[in-house]
Amino acid sequence: MLQLPPKIEEAISALQGLxxxxxxxxxxxxxxxxxxxxxxxxxxxxxxDHLRSLQxxxxxxxxxxxxxxxxxxxxxxCSDDERKLQKSLxxxxxxxxxxAIENANFFKGHYHLLGGVLNPMLGVTSRNLxxxxxxxxxxxxxxxxxxxxxxxxxxxxxxxxFLADLIKQRFSSVSVERxxxxxxxxxxxxxxxxxxxxxxxxxxxVL
Length: 207
Prior knowledge:
40% of the residues lie in helices and 12% in strands. By secondary structure, the chain is of the alpha/beta class. The chain has two domains: 6-53, Orthogonal Bundle (Helicase, Ruva Protein, domain 3), CATH 1.10.8; 74-206, Dna Topoisomerase Vi A Subunit, Chain: A, domain 2 (3-Layer(aba) Sandwich). The strands form two sheets. Strands 4-3-5-6-7 form a five-stranded mixed beta sheet. Strands 1-2 form a two-stranded antiparallel ribbon. α5 links the parallel β3 and β4 (110-113).
């Protein structure tokens, strides 16, 4: 069996740590990188290093590199006054779901990143998710509607029901809706086209 140079093997091993990247794909990436000139390599390394400076918005939980505002690290969407006027809060599982919904250019309110869904079998409870911070945001009284844009699955259904009950018990003036038709069972926002995402928001179900 061909023995590759240790430095190539090291790079392949590092790339295989990325989701969906196997050894063959990692090798192709490494061979392509070896053809880069010094400037391209330096730009790539700097872009990776700059990721280390990213922080999570203290309000929605999404990534931000903006300076502190009002004493908190807040992203540009949360600090957008026009979005605040919508009085709507869209709860999503992961950052990739937020990106997909925002790129669909349909929802114009604020977001809240939950960080996953309830899954007792894997030890994921409400304490492992950003539920408390969600309740804190609603307690301020700036939102009249919460949209649960949680991917449809057994865990997603349980999480949506849990959040809906919790919100309705504590905030009677806040309506709770969940995305409806257009979102396939087992689907994920990350892989849906903007039209399907828009359809799921247009057919929300009141909980």
